[in-house]
């Protein structure tokens, strides 16, 4: 009995998933989640560093890193163009940063060995693992599409609420709330669930079996980033062109 | 893990001692643990046996868990909004501006310029293709002229040689004819000579015959 208890305790210690446990910092009287900020800084550093390194001295015939970053930029431009239309130019930074930040965050949660670094409380994981991050991104998307619609069409932007008929007014208003809600919860839920599945499987069968699930996690992480960026671009494009 | 699940569903907690069931069969003393998450059935009386077995199993499994974990259970704050949200938004905006400065704008501009340069080069290549066509036409004309010249020269040569050959043939023919004439003339002469000779002989012979046939009377 005692031996069993000890092994079980060991398993708990190894696999201890700390969901909803945060490493709290106090900044000027406000509480923040330190682990999210730390990992987000790492993600930002990775993005800025690799981009600066690859684009430092562009060559006419691209090689290696530059080639990859050109491919990524083409990809982002393609997403923006298909969703927003011909006036996609000014929105490339927003859509691109959305995609890259979410993508690198998700993959960092799956690939970087965060767990090596011990925190006093909580644990390091992907920044998108925290509801604050995803809601922040979703609210920024909402702001972005309002801004896009208002600058493009002025006050006539609000005419979309009574189209095609005024009967749909409540539903159209509701949409402005469901959009950020679905965006943030989709990303948050997928990433959290993914990490939980991997951790639980690793604790149950510590070898071989979790590997396909890990690959599936990488796949879903990429898909989630793509979905978030595509939907953000679609919302912006929709509010710019309006309903006809 | 189990702790967390437990902690995140505090509303459905009932204690196993509350249910009218026989005490779970294990040797360990009643720990402070057995707070069980039980689904709330509509009619608990009908499901006494099921709930009994479930509670027994869960209680047993929990009793095997280290007791220290119970003390560490803490309310899981999954939806814990705080100042992280605006900070993340600000971080995202800063990242967007920075990436635009070092990545999207410079590389995008570079790529567009390269595209323009390539397009320009392509169109200039199209221009030279017209030139190439002209040159090709020139070359074709030169070839045609050369061919015409050659065929003219060939014809000329052919004519010349033909003339020469004809001349030679005519010469040869003349020569042969002359020889033929000569030979014919010779033959005629010989014939006349022979005829003359024969005449003389005929005369002599006829005289002989006459002498023989007509005796001298």
From TrEMBL, chain A:
The keyword Acetylation does not apply. The chain crosses the membrane at residues 32-55, 91-111, 131-150, 187-209, 215-236. One of its GO terms (molecular function) is proton-transporting ATP synthase activity, rotational mechanism. Pfam families: ATP-synt_A (PF00119). It is found in: Membrane; Plastid, Chloroplast thylakoid membrane. Keywords: ATP synthesis, CF(0), Chloroplast, Hydrogen ion transport, Ion transport, Membrane, Plastid, Thylakoid, Transmembrane, Transmembrane helix, Transport. Its main location: membrane. GO terms for cellular component: chloroplast thylakoid membrane; plasma membrane; proton-transporting ATP synthase complex. It is a multi-pass membrane protein. Gene3D superfamilies: ATP synthase, F0 complex, subunit A (1.20.120.220). Key component of the proton channel; it plays a direct role in the translocation of protons across the membrane. Belongs to the ATPase A chain family. F-type ATPases have 2 components, CF(1) - the catalytic core - and CF(0) - the membrane proton channel. CF(1) has five subunits: alpha(3), beta(3), gamma(1), delta(1), epsilon(1). CF(0) has four main subunits: a, b, b' and c. HAMAP family: ATP_synth_a_bact (MF_01393). This is ATP synthase subunit a, chloroplastic. It comes from Oldenlandia corymbosa (Diamond flower).
Automatic annotation (TrEMBL), chain B:
GO terms for biological process: proton motive force-driven ATP synthesis. Keywords: CF(0), Coiled coil, Hydrogen ion transport, Ion transport, Membrane, Transmembrane, Transmembrane helix, Transport. GO terms for molecular function: proton-transporting ATPase activity, rotational mechanism. InterPro entries: ATP_synth_b, ATP_synth_b/b'su_bac/chlpt, ATP_synthase_B_chain. GO terms for cellular component: proton-transporting ATP synthase complex. The keyword Lyase does not apply. It holds the Pfam family ATP-synt_B. It is found in: Membrane. The keyword Transmembrane applies. Residues 118-208 form a coiled coil. It is a single-pass membrane protein. F(1)F(0) ATP synthase produces ATP from ADP in the presence of a proton or sodium gradient. F-type ATPases consist of two structural domains, F(1) containing the extramembraneous catalytic core and F(0) containing the membrane proton channel, linked together by a central stalk and a peripheral stalk. During catalysis, ATP synthesis in the catalytic domain of F(1) is coupled via a rotary mechanism of the central stalk subunits to proton translocation. Belongs to the ATPase B chain family. HAMAP family: ATP_synth_b_bprime (MF_01398), ATP_synth_bprime (MF_01399). This is OLC1v1032830C1.
């Amino acid at each position: 009995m005692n031996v069993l208890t000890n092994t079980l305790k060991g398993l708990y210690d190894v696999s201890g998933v700390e969901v909803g446990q945060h490493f709290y910092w106090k900044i000027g009287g406000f509480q923040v989640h330190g682990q999210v900020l730390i990992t987000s800084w790492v993600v930002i550093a990775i993005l800025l560093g690799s981009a600066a390194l690859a684009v430092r001295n562009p060559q006419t015939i691209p090689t290696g890193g530059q080639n990859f970053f050109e491919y990524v930029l083409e990809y982002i431009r393609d997403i923006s163009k298909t969703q927003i239309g011909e006036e996609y130019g000014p929105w490339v930074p927003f859509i691109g940063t959305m995609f890259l930040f979410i993508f690198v965050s998700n993959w960092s949660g799956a690939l970087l060995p965060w767990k090596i670094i011990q925190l006093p409380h909580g644990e390091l994981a992907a920044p998108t693992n925290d509801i604050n991050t995803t809601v922040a991104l979703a609210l920024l998307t909402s702001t972005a599409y309002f801004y896009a619609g208002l600058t493009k069409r002025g006050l006539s932007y609000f005419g979309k609420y009574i189209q095609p008929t005024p009967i749909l007014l409540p539903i159209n208003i509701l949409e402005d709330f469901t959009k950020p809600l679905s965006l943030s919860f989709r990303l948050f839920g997928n990433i959290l669930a993914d990490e939980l599945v991997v951790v639980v499987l690793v604790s149950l069968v510590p070898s071989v079996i979790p590997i396909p699930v890990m690959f599936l996690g990488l796949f879903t992480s990429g898909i989630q980033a793509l979905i978030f960026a595509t939907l953000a671009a679609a919302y912006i494009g929709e509010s710019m062109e309006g309903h006809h | 893990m189990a702790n967390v699940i437990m902690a995140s569903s505090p509303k459905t907690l009932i204690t196993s001692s509350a249910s009218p069931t026989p005490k779970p069969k294990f040797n360990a003393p009643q720990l402070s643990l057995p707070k069980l998450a039980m689904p709330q059935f509509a009619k608990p009386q009908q499901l006494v046996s099921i709930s009994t077995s479930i509670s027994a199993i869960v209680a047993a499994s929990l009793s095997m868990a280290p007791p220290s974990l119970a003390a560490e259970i803490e309310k899981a704050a999954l939806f814990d909004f705080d100042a992280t949200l605006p900070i993340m938004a600000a971080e995202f905006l800063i990242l967007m501006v920075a990436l635009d400065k070092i990545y999207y704008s410079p590389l995008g501009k570079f790529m567009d310029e390269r595209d323009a340069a390539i397009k320009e080069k392509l169109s200039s290549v199209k221009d030279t293709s017209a030139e190439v066509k002209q040159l090709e036409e020139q070359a074709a004309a030169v070839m045609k002229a050369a061919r015409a010249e050659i065929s003219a020269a060939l014809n000329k040569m052919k004519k010349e040689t033909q003339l020469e050959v004809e001349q030679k043939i005519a010469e040869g023919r003349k020569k042969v004819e002359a020889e033929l004439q000569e030979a014919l003339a010779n033959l005629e002469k010989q014939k006349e000579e022979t005829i003359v000779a024969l005449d003389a002989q005929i005369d002599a012979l006829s005289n002989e015959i006459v002498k023989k046939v007509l005796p001298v009377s």
